[in-house]
Amino acid sequence: MHGPASSGWLLVALCAATGAYCLLRMRSGVEEQRRAAGGEALMGFGMAAMAVPAAVFTPPAWAWPAYAVVFGAAGLRALWAARSGRHHLHHLVGDAAMVYMALAMAGSSAHGHAHGSSGVPLLTGMLLLYFTGYVLLTGVRLLPVAVVAGGGTAGDGTAGGGTAGGGAADGWGDRPELARACRLSMGIAMLAMLLTM
Asked: With contact defined as beta carbons under 8 Å apart, do 37 and 28 qualify?
């Protein structure tokens, strides 16, 4: 039991730290970044709470339906926002995954954690494939930005995503490589959580 509990605490720490950084990103001067950061902060803190080991804290029965309602509402918001940009579709998939996990946890706690079938359910498998692809793609996209940032060419504006002034006007909360690293860590955490289902 020590192994799963320690990995659960690592997930809690990763997701909570990511959520806290996303709260800092909400101070950005770019409205679109503030909106995205708000949704990602909700996701980070929600995943952190969901990852707390059951041996330490077992949520009350009403908590899982409450999770489903909160992330269902966030998913509707992401669906509405997807009219202006495709990247909101990822938030929609993440919110749907949270609703799915909350409903699965509500069902398993209602049935005494009994699993009647073997193998991976179809929806779990599809979410695992999606988040595996997302993690790999985000990791690949993160590498060139890190090389440019480390190559001493900070003044050429190739990082993108900042304010018009560049340089000192861009706070560390507006750095696109940090936002990508945030999304990468949440994608990895989502994979870990789906694998435990």
From this structure: yes
